[in-house]
Design a protein that fits this description.
582 residues; Helicase, Ruva Protein, domain 3; single chain; 3-stranded antiparallel beta sheet; alpha/beta; 16 helices; LRR_R13L4/SHOC2-like; disordered C terminus
């Protein structure tokens, strides 16, 4: 049964196919994943995009049949097939076009540059199939599907951003016991299961940990659907007072237009290149998402930020200073409703100085928190509240000693922990009574940690362990393999010692029948230069030996921290001897 759209179709015919235990099979094909789940007690087979070899075989079969493939067209053919991106329908359409043109090399090279035009121009089948998919969509999914038509063909957008935009334009209906983000994730799952959106999984975070950390690719146009009414597009607005989405994160501004703060209906605002948010931001009473993408100075938030009760997401690429509350007034102000953002879910990055006593009491639904170091401020046990639940925490450049990890154990619902750019500093970490009860994902990115322990006691529910840019000669703790929930270990640009230890753990697990543990190792292969941003933490060590021991061959950007005096000198004899090894 081909192209089944509804479970009722299977209900009608299934009685005609009794199970007589004679090995017969019924095959159903559908664009909706739930059809297969409904019809079969076994697992469904999900079709994947064609590989390069499969695409070439399909293309050559449609163009040449049993004829001999011309060798001179091999290069152009591979270029054409690559632009079809493994999509069978696109491959068949382009192959049909190529079968009707001259088999001259220059003609096929021209096709390779115009694959997209050929698909859009010469096939009604693509448009009919697209319209069929649209017509079978539930009403609540249709505007979400059409929303991607505002972006260029092939545009990639993060799931997080897409969901926030859907919520901002009120395409998501809230349900009991679920917030907008959870409902929107369900919408997105439906569209992916119907093969309308294509997802590329993020290889750093496994699906069980963060099922929606993907990138969505919209690979077909919506030309046949332009007649659909009642679909908003902020691009065509003439009266800006009703604007709900304003994204200018890549637009250079010397100063922000004051008119922005008069757009009272804004729900999504993304800006860059400003260091002070004016008090007039309180005019944006409906604002849900505020992004600041500048890499320049940190931004200061006015006290009026607490007035925007609809805020759900605050993101600052550098970091932000929350308005300071005088200690003698703090208890009074915390009881005042103005100091509460009850709908806030994500907050990144803020400075330690912003974390005053009780600040998180006014953020009961905070799930994601990012903290960045600032000047000489340091984390204390009282600065992070146990009120934070279902938390995703990122610490960057804090230079804390590893014994401060005991503070993070007080967060009972901490599920994702990312430590970046020497968030913790030191070569040894020996957790004793530290126990991360709910932690599912741990990222160590840029650290000098060599000796550490990790077992099922410390991480009883850990699913993914990732280390990045750690060039010191460390080994993955063998006890990690004892964690029953562990699904993958992933290493990015780490020392060969670390790679060998990870491979050894995988081999040992496979030898005892645990084939579920996956080890992925990513290296800089075939690179002329190895360039990275290096955080050099202390003037006590010589820079060149530090780089050599850390396998740093070329330094692109050097960030100096806690250096009073900087002196450039020629390499010592010891450093020269080290360099001769490479």
């Amino acid at each position: 049964m081909d192209d089944v759209w509804d479970t009722s179709a299977w209900d009608v015919v299934k009685r005609s196919f009794p199970d007589d235990k004679n090995g017969s099979r019924v095959i159903l094909t559908s664009r909706i994943a739930n059809i297969g789940i409904y019809a079969s007690s076994g697992s469904s087979h999900y079709m994947q995009c064609l590989s390069v070899e499969e695409s070439l075989r399909l293309f050559n079969l449609k163009v040449f049949g049993r004829e001999t493939f011309p060798f001179e067209l091999e290069k152009a053919t591979k270029q054409i097939v690559a632009k079809c991106q493994g999509l069978p329908l696109t491959t068949v359409v382009v192959a049909g076009f190529c079968s009707k043109i001259s088999k001259m090399e220059n003609c096929w090279e021209d096709v390779a540059h115009k694959v997209g035009l050929i698909v859009n121009r010469d096939t009604e089948e693509c448009l009919d199939l697209l319209a069929l998919s649209y017509n079978h969509l539930p009403h609540h999914l249709k505007p979400c599907f059409l929303y991607m038509g505002a972006f260029p063909k092939g545009f990639e957008i993060s799931v997080s951003r897409l969901i926030k935009l859907w919520i901002a334009v009120e395409y998501v209906r809230c349900k009991p016991e679920k917030d907008f983000e959870e409902v929107a994730e369900g919408y997105l799952s439906d569209l992916i299961e119907r093969s309308i959106y294509f997802a590329k999984s993020n290889v750093i975070v496994s699906p069980p940990v963060a099922s929606f950390e993907h990138r969505i690719i919209f690979n077909f146009g919506v030309a046949p659907l332009t007649h659909i009414e009642h679909v908003d597009s902020f691009i065509t607005f003439t009266n800006f007072k009703w604007l709900t989405v304003l994204d200018m994160c890549f637009q250079p501004f010397d100063h922000l237009p004051s008119e922005i703060w008069e757009l009272s209906q804004l729900r999504y605002l993304s800006l860059s290149n400003f260091s002070v948010l004016p008090p007039s931001v309180c005019n944006l009473r409906h604002l849900q998402t505020l992004f600041h993408y500048s890499n320049q100075a940190s931004i200061c938030l006015p006290a009026e930020i607490w007035v925007i009760k609809q805020l759900r997401h605050l993101y600052f690429r550098k970091c932000c200073y929350f308005p300071n509350v005088q200690s003698e007034q703090e208890d009074y102000l915390l009881n005042c409703p103005v100091l509460s953002l009850t709908k806030l879910q994500s907050l990144s990055y803020i400075t330690f100085g912003s974390i005053t006593r009780g600040i998180f009491e006014g953020m009961p639904n905070l799930r994601k928190l990012g903290i960045r170091e600032s000047e000489e401020e340091r984390l204390t046990a009282k600065q992070i509240s146990g009120k934070l639940k279902k938390l995703k925490l990122t610490l960057r450049g804090c230079q804390l000693p590893w014994d401060q990890m005991t503070i993070l154990c007080t967060l009972p619902k901490l599920e994702v922990l990312k430590l970046k750019d020497y968030a913790f500093q030191g070569s040894e970490w020996e957790p004793t009574n530290e126990r991360f009860q709910q932690l599912k994902f741990l990222l160590l990115d840029g650290t000098d940690l060599i000796h550490w322990k990790a077992s099922s006691f410390q991480f009883p529910k850990l699913e993914g362990l990732v280390r990045k840019n750690c060039y010191c000669p460390y080994e993955i703790p063998e006890d990690v393999a004892e964690i029953p929930t562990l699904q993958f270990i992933e290493l990015y640009h780490c020392s060969s010692t670390a790679d060998d230890s990870a491979n050894r753990i995988q081999e040992e697990q496979h030898s005892i029948g645990n084939d579920d543990l996956v080890v992925r190792i990513h290296k800089f292969y075939n690179c002329e230069l190895f360039m990275l941003s290096l955080n050099f933490l202390s003037c006590k060590d010589q820079l060149i030996p530090y780089c050599i021991y850390s396998f740093v061959l070329f330094v692109w950007q050097l960030n100096l921290k806690a250096c009073i005096h900087l002196i450039f000198s020629t390499p010592s004899q010891q450093a020269m001897r080290l360099m001769q090894r490479f």
